[in-house]
Specification:
The chain is α/β, with parallel strands linked by helices. The chain has a single domain, classed as NAD(P)-binding Rossmann-like Domain (Rossmann fold, 3-Layer(aba) Sandwich). It has 7 helices and 9 strands, in the order βαβαβαβαβαββαβαβ. It has a 7-stranded parallel sheet with strand order 3-2-1-4-5-6-9, sandwiched between helices. α1 links the parallel β1 and β2. The longest helix has 22 residues.
Length: 249
């Protein structure tokens, strides 16, 4: 019997990377999965990969009207949710002195505001005893050049997990944080690093990982599955780092 048999899960940012890998893992364990993202073509490709127990709704988590439409659709078609995985995120590396208001607002809108309202607006559909998972990053507790805004948004996400653990305890909803380290995903190719610097930057990061390699999306998906399932039934409020030891030394 699958670990998520009969469960309904929402995964934001579910058309690629950690979100897509998690959708596949959840479905393999018996869940019905809803994915959302901003690119309809990417959603269509992802749905073909995930299989028949998945549905997709295009939308931007930083747009509250899109979130309202998402939950209206879930309510009409599925009735409720058991798992909310607020995973969508954005990252552009830039030196402190070069960060623009546009970049600042974009990352806070998606990574912090988007996570906040993704979960808040899910509450009427989320069943008591459900699981909420938030994607943060080890960047929230490490000082790394170029990650100024991203790290701050992920610190906010970690704080949300602590607060919501208390706010939702009366409904027995568990809230946990998932903090990946350097992971090979499409997001890694959108960080704004010039091509001529990418190789040297990769070597710089690699030298800091005790396991000597980058992680992959499937490894983080396994951690998300653990937090979504009853295997973690007495775990709430934690920050589970999937980082090859980078943030632990």
């Amino acid at each position: 019997m699958g670990k998520l048999k009969g469960k309904i899960a929402l995964i934001t940012g579910g058309a690629s990377g950690i979100g897509l890998a998690s959708a596949k893992a959840f479905v393999a364990e018996g869940a019905q999965v809803v994915i959302t993202g901003r690119d309809q073509a990417a959603i269509d490709v992802a749905l073909a990969e995930i299989g028949e127990r998945a549905m997709g709704v295009r939308g931007d988590v930083s747009n509250l009207a899109d979130l309202d439409r998402l939950y209206s659709e879930i309510g009409k078609r599925l009735g409720h949710l058991d798992i909310v995985f607020a995973n969508a995120g954005a990252l552009t590396l830039a030196p402190f002195e070069d960060i623009t208001e546009v970049q600042f607002n974009r990352e806070f809108d998606i990574n912090a505001k988007g996570v906040f309202f993704t979960v808040q607006k899910a509450l009427p559909l989320l069943k008591d005893g459900g699981s909420v998972i938030l994607t943060s990053s080890i960047a929230h507790f490490k000082g790394t050049p170029g990650y100024n805004v991203y790290a701050a948004t992920k610190a906010a996400v970690r704080s949300f997990a602590r607060s919501w653990t208390v706010d939702l305890k009366h409904r027995n909803i568990r809230v946990n944080c998932l903090s990946p380290g350097p992971t090979i995903t499409p997001l890694a190719g959108k960080m704004g690093i010039p091509a001529e610097q990418a190789e040297s930057y990769g070597k710089y990061i690699l030298e800091q990982i005790p396991m000597g390699r980058f992680g992959n999306a499937e490894e983080t998906a396994k951690a998300a599955l653990f937090l979504a399932s009853d295997d973690s039934s007495f775990i709430t409020g934690v920050d589970l780092c999937v980082d090859g030891g980078m943030g632990q030394i």
